[in-house]
Amino acid sequence: MKESTGIGSHLEALPSRTISDAVAFRAAMRHFVGSVSVVTTWHGDRPWGMTINSFTSVCADPPTILICLNRKTVTASHVQNTGRFAVNLLSQDQLHLSEICARPAADKYIDEHVLSPEDASGPSSMPLLRDASVVFECRAVEQLVVGSHRIAIATIESIHVLVDRPPLLYGQGRYMRGIELEMRA
Ligand SMILES: Cc1cc2nc3c(=O)[nH]c(=O)nc-3n(C[C@H](O)[C@H](O)[C@H](O)COP(=O)(O)O)c2cc1C
């Protein structure tokens, strides 16, 4: 696994006027709406989850995704040390779980939300959340440090399709439901 601090060091070197730009950046980013996921890892021998919305597809050949994690989080430390994690795309029914896994500095053990091995659609080595739409089991191939965050670029080792339910979305500082727009000819 390669690790680079190149981009991060470059950003830290920018002049201080960018501090006020960060306020404008956060305000602008409130308009970005994305789906909500929980990154699962093993904490000791127990499943642990962290809510994110920074999941994105990178490319299909080879199947690759990326996530961005605040470096101070327990999950970022796990990813740094092991390179192994799963991304669980949440359905609308899992809003409460998203809240549990977003509480800063609180325990995020999620034993009761994880599928038992018999109920999983195939063998897995990472915790899979019951009622997630899809779970990607991932192995980081490259990690970058950019300012406060760690970007993990990862290949997909397996995909579990669990339930076909509407996705949980987040934007404008709150959870949202998707609204289907009429197709226009
Ligand atoms: C909808 C939503 C999306 C989030 N997305 C991210 C994210 O992409 N990256 C991140 O580092 N934190 C994100 N957070 C914040 C983390 O969930 C939260 O800071 C983290 O669980 C704290 O973990 P810790 O207790 O290990 O510090 C998000 C929170 C919410 C509510």
TrEMBL record:
Keywords (A to Z) from UniProt: Oxidoreductase
InterPro entries assigned: Flavin_Rdtase-like_dom, NADH-dep_flavin_reductase, Split_barrel_FMN-bd
Top-rank lineage group of the source organism: Bacteria
The keyword Oxidoreductase is assigned to this record: yes
Domain (Flavin reductase like) ranges: 29-177
One Pfam family in the UniProt entry: Flavin_Reduct
GO molecular function: FMN binding; riboflavin reductase (NADPH) activity
PANTHER family: FLAVIN REDUCTASE (PTHR30466), FMN REDUCTASE (NADH) RUTF (PTHR30466:SF1)
Name of this protein: Flavin reductase family protein
